[in-house]
């Protein structure tokens, strides 16, 4: 009986196999310590922004009624993206602006999430919340891949990104978080020489923002200059053009023009082509005191912030050239070029969120020069709070 009981207690082959499968599944899907740290920073910053969304309108908009907490999140482009999700592209201008200016990826996800009954604004927040968590994890992976000698650099880069002065746009119903959720893993795949995977993620990014075009350019430069290029994978790099051409063809059917997106940008946001020096002159004029009425001083300060963002982007570009990071340099240069050829430079502050080399570079500086890291946080955190409060109270926030 003793031997029979011992034999019965031995694991059966089928049970052992199931245990190995479950163990492998658990190990694969359980977040790594680095990912858990990133998600911890994500949660802390989301809570902070939610607190600001409740308190800022009550503190700074005296007399204004905010019976619904989501009202504070319904600002600026959220109106237009909500309108695309709700009405599509062929129902006029329900938000007061030509909706062809917005790519369909983000509004489509918002519409899908809204079927849960939470509403379009809350759905946009949910999409951005999930996307920013995913993007932060991949930003950490990318930072660690680029600088393997700096242990723990990944979570630091994600923390700095979440706490960026314009970090509120990673939480609001804007496209930045979703674009980064596709762009960051795309670039990590490209750096690893996984070109098909990179092309798929870039194609997804191209459904979200026109910035996907700049990402296509950067991917091509990375492929040509990479030691890991595989010419058999070259056809994959044509894939990102498919959603762009598809969107152009769709707008052609509705508005009769292949360039309806650009025409909408020109009509609604004065983004007609302008020589860079003229654009810079217009921006300096807008940043000067007295250019806007006294009750719109937020516009003056935001244009000043645009000039600061341009300076930071140019410094970043010089650093990338110095490191011979040709793909990343192509990405940043294309982004700068696009913003500097409009009537004036604006929304470049938000676009810095898409520049992953900036946040990785700041993390490197903070690791190698801790006092500079502390100085950066001493400036960035108050700015992030002010920026968020401005957004939640309807001020122009870039």
Would you mind describing this structure in some detail?
The protein has one domain. The radius of gyration is 23 Å and the shape is globular. Residues 1-11 and 21-26 have low confidence and may be disordered. It contains 18 helices and no strands. It is an all-alpha fold and 398 residues long. Helix content is 68%, strand content 0%. This is Mannosyltransferase PIG-V. It is found in: Endoplasmic reticulum membrane. Keywords: Endoplasmic reticulum, Glycosyltransferase, GPI-anchor biosynthesis, Membrane, Transferase, Transmembrane, Transmembrane helix. InterPro entries: PIG-V/Gpi18.
List the helices and strands and how they pair.
Blueprint: H1 2-9, H2 13-29, H3 33-60, H4 77-87, H5 105-114, H6 120-146, H7 153-162, H8 176-191, H9 195-205, H10 211-225, H11 241-255, H12 260-269, H13 276-286, H14 297-323, H15 326-339, H16 348-351, H17 356-368, H18 370-392
Helix pairs in contact: 3-6, 3-7, 3-18, 4-5, 5-6, 6-7, 6-8, 7-17, 8-9, 8-10, 9-10, 10-15, 14-15, 17-18
Portion in helices:
55-70%
Low-confidence stretches: 1-11, 21-26
**Integer average pLDDT:** 87
Oligomer: single chain
- Tell me the span between the first and last alpha carbons: 79 Å
Strand percentage lies at: under 5%
Please trace the helix and strand order, writing H or E for each element.
Answer: HHHHHHHHHHHHHHHHHH
Helical stretch count? 18
The coarse silhouette is globular
Beta strands, count: 0
CA radius of gyration is 23 Å
Task: Describe the sheet with the most strands.
Answer: none
How many domain modules? 1
Q: What structural category do the secondary elements indicate?
A: mainly alpha
């Amino acid at each position: 009986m003793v031997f029979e009981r011992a034999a019965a207690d031995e694991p059966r082959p089928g049970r052992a196999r199931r245990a190995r499968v479950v163990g492998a599944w658990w190990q694969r899907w359980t977040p790594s310590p680095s990912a858990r740290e990133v998600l911890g920073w994500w949660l802390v910053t989301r809570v902070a922004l939610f607190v600001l969304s409740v308190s800022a309108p009550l503190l700074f908009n005296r007399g204004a009624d905010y019976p619904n907490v989501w009202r504070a999140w319904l600002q600026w482009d959220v109106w237009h993206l909500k309108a695309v999700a709700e009405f599509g592209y062929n129902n006029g201008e329900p938000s007061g602006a030509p909706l062809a200016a917005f790519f369909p990826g983000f509004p489509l996800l918002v519409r899908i999430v809204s079927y849960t009954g939470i509403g379009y604004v809350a759905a946009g927040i949910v999409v951005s919340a999930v996307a920013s968590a995913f993007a932060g994890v991949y930003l950490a992976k990318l930072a660690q891949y680029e600088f393997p000698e700096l242990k723990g650099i990944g979570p630091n880069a994600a923390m700095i990104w979440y706490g960026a002065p314009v970090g509120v746009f990673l939480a609001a119903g804007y496209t930045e978080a979703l674009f980064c959720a596709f762009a960051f893993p795309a670039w990590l795949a490209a750096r690893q020489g996984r070109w098909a995977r990179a092309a798929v993620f870039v194609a997804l990014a191209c459904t979200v923002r026109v910035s996907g075009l700049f990402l296509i350019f950067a991917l091509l430069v990375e492929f040509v200059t990479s030691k890991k290029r595989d010419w058999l994978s070259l056809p994959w790099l044509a894939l990102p053009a498919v959603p762009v051409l598809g969107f152009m063809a769709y707008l052609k059917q509705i508005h009769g023009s292949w360039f309806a997106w650009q025409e909408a940008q020109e009509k609604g946001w004065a983004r007609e082509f302008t020589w860079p020096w003229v654009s810079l002159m217009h921006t300096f004029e807008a940043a000067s005191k007295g250019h806007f009425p006294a009750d719109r001083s937020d516009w003056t300060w935001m244009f000043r912030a645009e000039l600061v963002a341009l300076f930071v982007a140019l410094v970043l570009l010089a650093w990338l050239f110095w490191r011979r990071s040709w793909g990343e340099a192509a990405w940043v240069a294309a982004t700068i070029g696009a913003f500097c050829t409009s009537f004036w430079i604006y929304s470049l502050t938000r676009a810095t969120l898409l520049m992953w080399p900036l946040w990785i570079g700041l993390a490197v500086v903070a690791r190698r020069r801790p006092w500079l890291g502390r100085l950066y946080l001493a400036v960035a955190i108050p700015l992030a709070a002010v920026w968020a409060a401005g957004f939640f109270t309807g001020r122009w926030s870039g």
